[in-house]
Amino acid sequence: MNWSYGYYTELNYTHGYYRQMAPALLRMACLCGGIEAQLRDQPVYLELGFGQGLSVNIHAAANGGQFWGTDFNPGQAAYARELAEASGVDLHLFDDSFEEFAARTDLPDFDIIALHGIWSWVSEANRKTILDLIRRKLRVSGLVYVSYNCLPGWAPAIPVRQLMTLYGDYGGGQMAGPEGTIEGAIKFSADVLKNGSVYFRENPSAAHQLERLSKQSANYIGHEYLGADWHLVHVSDMARSLEEAKLSFVGPARLLDRIDGMHLTEDGRKFLGGIGHPLLRETVRDYLVNQRFRCDVFVKGAIPLAGAKQREAWRAQPFVLTVCHEDIPKTIAGALGEVELPEKIYDPVIDVLSEHCYRPKRIDELMASPKLAGMKVNIVIEVLMVLTGAGFVSPAQTPSEKTIESCHALNRHICGQALTSTDLSYLASPITGGGIFIPHICQLFILAMDRGRTSAAELATFVWDFLDGVGERLLREGTRVESREENIKEFSRLANRFLTRTRPMLQALKVV
Ligand SMILES: C[S@@+](CC[C@H](N)C(=O)[O-])C[C@H]1O[C@@H](n2cnc3c(N)ncnc32)[C@H](O)[C@@H]1O
Question: Which one of 80, 223, 299, 404 is least enclosed by Cβ atoms within 10 Å?
Fold first, then answer.
């Protein structure tokens, strides 16, 4: 066995950012789950298996505290360290395996231990190591964030993965290279389907799964389907495992997973309402929505937060828009289809949040606006919970000069990278303590402004010169638009929109 313990290392992992891992959103998960979040303002945070390290770097730049992380892939650890160097934050990033990391003698006690995309994909021995580390090194009141593939949603795909892994082991041959092996594994599985497989006929969702695979990236497929380990659990099993480390279940970190009205039928809601035990309820809920992936928060020593105390905690929390109010859609995706965000209650809250140049606002300030006249506080709380869960709003904090500087330094580096790759799509905000989605073209506009361009025409020319230099063009409905004039016209329109809509919000978020 080499250093990878059977973990898939042929292709590096994608450059993802996961906002629900930000300290502020973990606090929100506790608040929504009726648990007191006793996190210190300057938490000691550990991310296990940080991948390319974008999340840990953004969180370290945008928050006070101490940030630690390990990922045994040296290429990824090197990339993550490069980001850390750019922000100037003193991160403690290692290329240790979990086993090596757990054996270190210089570890502090942690307030937060977060692992995204790890639990289901590592060996039982590694899961034991992680549990033991949590047991020894998480402070009382500390939080654990863990995401994992779950049942029942993945159940029909288990045999698909088996075919893919077996092909990788016995059918592909090393000559094909990682991409070739993945392509071959998909084709091989599709051939099984085509040759009269009764399994696929009787399990149409497995056939859909296979169909979807051809549209997913090789990096994702390699990590999901070709590793040695794939551990699927129900939420109740996950909670039992973490009980061994003295942790209690708080609830989902993705706040939309709490909004039953968005995902369940009326009968489903009534049925669930009749189940008393939180873990039985949460497990049954996964059957109602056919859950495949969960992101959960656990706490070491739960102190319930309810009634007036919970409302007070909501009132104390400022919120800020993270998407321009004109760009917020009128519907969002629920388990049963698109769900409308009723204009009558959502628009006034969004409007008031955008007032005074997007300055963060507490619930009392929102409710003092005539636009919210007659709206009850629990409705405003639910609207904020949905908007936060959907990623349109975030809890806000008062940043130090140091976090503002670190975010700006990291953001400058990321925008500079936009000249050579489109891998990174988030910039750090010291106001939210997390990442803000910034499309590639907006990163180029920010870079252009850093280099002294100011007008929409100048930004458009900057983008055109860059694209022309690398032989690229604007794509319209998948087709290259060749003429300079057409390109500049479209980039000017986008630059104008960036300057008038997006930039004021990014300034309020102190991203720029
Ligand atoms: C699916 S990726 C998730 C990466 C990152 N958390 C994200 O979501 O973008 C899993 C990561 O865990 C790392 N990893 C797997 N097993 C490990 C181990 N035993 N010790 C340290 N890192 C490990 C891999 O290198 C990989 O980067």
Answer: 404
From the number of C-beta atoms within 10 Å of its C-beta (0-12, 13-18, 19+), residue 266 rates as exposed
- 2: in domain: no
Q: Which atom of ligand 1 is found nearest the CA of 100?
A: 20
Q: Do 323 and 295 sit in the same domain of this protein? A: no
In terms of domains, do 357 and 453 share one? Answer: no
3-class DSSP state for residue 93? strand
414 CA distance to ligand 1 centroid (A)? 22
234-287 confidence digits (pLDDT tens): 999 999 999 999 999 999 999 999 999 999 999 999 999 999 999 999 999 999
Token pair recorded at residue 350: 């969004």
Q: Give me the pLDDT at residue 1, please.
A: 45
Asked if residue 314 is part of any domain, the answer here is no
The tally of domains found in the chain comes to: 4
Q: Are 294 and 150 in contact (CB under 8 A)?
A: yes
429, 494: one domain: yes
DSSP character at residue 3: T
Task: Give residue-wise pLDDT tens across range 284-306.
Answer: 999 999 999 999 999 999 999 99
Q: Contact, 299 vs 140, CB < 8 A?
A: no
Name the pLDDT band for 13 (thresholds 50, 70, 90).
low
Domain that holds residue 284: 19-151+232-299
Instruction: Provide residues with CB under 6 Å of ligand 1.
Output: 5, 7, 13, 16, 49-51, 70-73, 76, 97-98, 116-118, 121-122, 126, 223
Residues 6+ apart with CB under 8 A from 253: 20, 21, 25, 26, 29, 145, 147, 295, 296, 297
Residue 260, beta-bridge partner list:
none
Q: Which atom of ligand 1 is nearest to the CA of 122?
A: 16
Helices (H), 298-400: 307-316, 343-358, 363-368, 377-389
Of all protein residues, the one whose alpha carbon is nearest to atom 4 of ligand 1 is 51
Q: Which of 68, 72, 96 to mutate to test the pocket of ligand 1 (most atoms within 8 A of CB)?
A: 72
Spatial distance between the Cα atoms of 360 and 147, rounded to a whole number of angstroms: 30
> Which of 20, 55, 118 most suits a substitution to test ligand 1, by most atoms within 8 Å of the C-beta?
118
